[in-house]
């Protein structure tokens, strides 16, 4: 059985001694949905055929997030489908062997299109094959386009290919915006269709206020990335990473309006039939079904009764659909 290559992650351009000729694609890849997966499959295929390293250049933060903050218009920043850890894991699962997480800052925002090509693509990554979307723009004020890339490719010796939008069997475009819309509406089947799998969040279990334990429903707490695309509410979930098999759970995603006013979004997961110490462990939580929106209750007994009802409804879901 062939050994899977180790994923190399760079937050700045790789040092010269680590540089290998690559097949590259560029994008934000939020969610790594089925449209992204089609792009990544093409990159990996080209890399195999040409003996190149399949690579992705992505940005942190999202360029739209950077410009929204720069112009003091936070409402224009996109919500996030996945945190950086989940995005990189999905890229690796698709066969990518090298990820450059380029900091999107004033330096990159002001970089000319030619400097982007010469400094990043050619000297920085030794790009030999490049795949981008048909509407790809880059460089200061989005001055670079496909024509400029093709001219540079002829000069520097790399091929440039474009990929049209990927659509589902109904002809609908598969995009991060569509996934965000589905998650905002609590439409998990639609989101899973676009993603090719259930939406998931991963993170290390952190200590909370232990209130769930006092109420009889101990929870695992996970921090949530800012501007999470998923709707606040109560979900049926499947938890991976705590044993040889997934575990059934019910989860609350939101700001816990009944017990605190800090406004910090948290994911709290109650395992239905397991009791274990998970503090510090890295877990992955898959969102299977939305039960209801988040609510504020007048007192803790009312909250406890609602949690008990959520647990019953989650068990009923698993009784029908299995784990």
Automatic annotation (TrEMBL):
It comes from the Bacteria. Its EC number is 2.7.1.26, 2.7.7.2. It comes from Bordetella trematum. The keyword Acyltransferase does not apply. SMART domains: Flavokinase. The keyword Nucleotide-binding applies. One of its GO terms (molecular function) is riboflavin kinase activity. Pathway: Cofactor biosynthesis; FAD biosynthesis; FAD from FMN: step 1/1; Cofactor biosynthesis; FMN biosynthesis; FMN from riboflavin (ATP route): step 1/1. It catalyses: riboflavin + ATP = FMN + ADP + H(+); FMN + ATP + H(+) = FAD + diphosphate. The gene is ribF. Belongs to the ribF family. Residues 194-319 form the Riboflavin kinase domain. This is Riboflavin biosynthesis protein. One of its GO terms (biological process) is FAD biosynthetic process. Keywords: ATP-binding, FAD, Flavoprotein, FMN, Kinase, Multifunctional enzyme, Nucleotide-binding, Nucleotidyltransferase, Transferase. Catalyzes the phosphorylation of riboflavin to FMN followed by the adenylation of FMN to FAD.
